[in-house]
Structure formats: C-alpha cells, structure tokens
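Thread: quick sanity check before group meeting

JM: Hey all, I'm pulling together slides for Thursday and realized we never actually wrote out the predicted structure for the chain we discussed last week. Dropping the sequence here so it's in one place. If anyone has concerns about the input, flag it before I start.
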Amino acid sequence: MNKLYRYRAFNENTLRELIEGELWHSHVRNLNDPFEHPFDFDWSDITIENLPTINRHLKLITNENLIRHYFDDESKNIFFNGFKNWLRIQIDYLKINQERTFICCFSESENEPLMWSHYSNGMTGLCFIYNRDALANKKDLKLERVIYNESVSKMKYSDVEVINKKLNNSSHYSFTLGKFMTSNSAGSTLNNFNFLYQKHNRWKYEKEVRSILFPESNEENLKTGVIEKVGDNAVIGVIIGSKMNKVNRKIISTLCKERNIPIHIAIPNKNNYSVDIVYDVHDPINYML
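JM (edit): ok, ran it. Output follows.
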C-alpha cells in the first residue's frame, strides 16, 4: 500500500485530525521555513530579438502589428519598453498572489530522527500513517513531492499566460504609448506552479509531499488555516513516540481501538542514531514505560 506519514505534536488539533478525519492546512505565512514559495523571474530571455517568439506565446498583439513596429527602431524600442513595464507589473502581481496558499505537509519516511525531534516534540508526539491513494482520490487534494535544490528555479515568460479582463472602467497597458489606457485590460495567470514545491536541499531529509489549497476570497486568506475533510478511511495507522506520557497514550489507544487502527511505537536506537519502529504493539499504553 502507498503510504504517507504526518508527524504531529499531541494537542487538540491532532486529536481532531484522528476523530473527525480532518486535515489542517496552515497558511504559508505560518510555516517554519522563511523561504517558502521562492519566486524569481528569469529576465534573460526578455530581449528585443526574442519579441516575436515571446509574442507567439503571450499573444499580446497580432503578428502584423508586431512587424509594423519592427520597421522603425524608435517604435520598436517604445514597444519593447512598454512590454517590459507591463510584464514587470504582472510579475509583481503574481509574486503577491503566491503568498496566498494553505499547505498540509506529509513525509515519505516514518523513521527520520529529525522529523520525530522537530515535528513530534522529541517523540512525545505521534505520526499518522495515511493511505496515499485514499487522499489522492479526494477531488480537492493534489499531492506533489517537494523539489529540493541549491538555487531557486526561476520562472520563465512561458510560465505566464495572458488573460483578457473585460471589466467596466478597466484599463490596459499601451505598449506604444507606455502607459495605461481606459479600455479592456490584459492580465496574467500562471501555468506553472512548481515554485510552490521548491525548497532548499537543507530540508531534503523531510522527504516532503504537500497538499496546497488556494483561498477562495480575501477574507479566507486572512485565516491561519483551513480544514479539508478526508474521511475515516484515510488514517491506516498511528505511530506513538516512545516518550509520549501514559495519559496521552491512553487517549490515542482508546480512539484507535474505536476505529480499528493499529498502533506502533517509534524508539530511538542509540547505537546508530536511528529510529526503530515496533509494529502492531499489543499494549501501547505500557510499552517501555
């Protein structure tokens, strides 16, 4: 079975995740990596010589109009500078909007010592085992592996799509005049969201898979997080940290017994700095206490 692991501290939200079948997606601004969603644009391809190729993708003006600008150097330069100003405005807009996400993090590893230390409070917490296929079948969840790299992979102009906004009293950018004019406007959207899954190699040990949700309104964007229901069949096991106290073990054991969910125990192996998982523990309440 394809599995994902979710390391959690013991708290009310963790219990709700088990009881209600809920996945908490935290707003990106609340995550512990300050470099989330690195967004950098590659301007090296934005040259006068490449304008025909760029325009074939963005379709900002007809080829006939573009050719007409090319007959005159001054007109060509004015158009190119106007285009760059428009693109810079679009990139700034897209950068702002990339901060509007809710993220739920999983791991493909159940025995990573740093994960047990950082996200399960030094083994006083637990780790949920999820059926990855059950999560993937939820229409609102899209699971993607995180891409680890040493330097940020930049966005290209080919990652941008132009959309026409037919709004009253809107404006468009005149590439010829180099300013906004009252009329219909040309906005932009992205066709490549890989930047949402980029992280530096220092985080590679997490082997992260993430689900990303987008706020449906400005009001929702102000929330610290949102909940996505996944149902009772998504959690197929719970790994208890060996340092979880007896009271909390009893609570987890009772909840898991009601749902016929097996309990396992994570134990630090002090001979080689690893974590061992003892599966299907008969008495998790008193094991090693």
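AS: nice. The radius of gyration is 25 Å. The longest helix spans residues 73-97.
JM: adding both to the slides.
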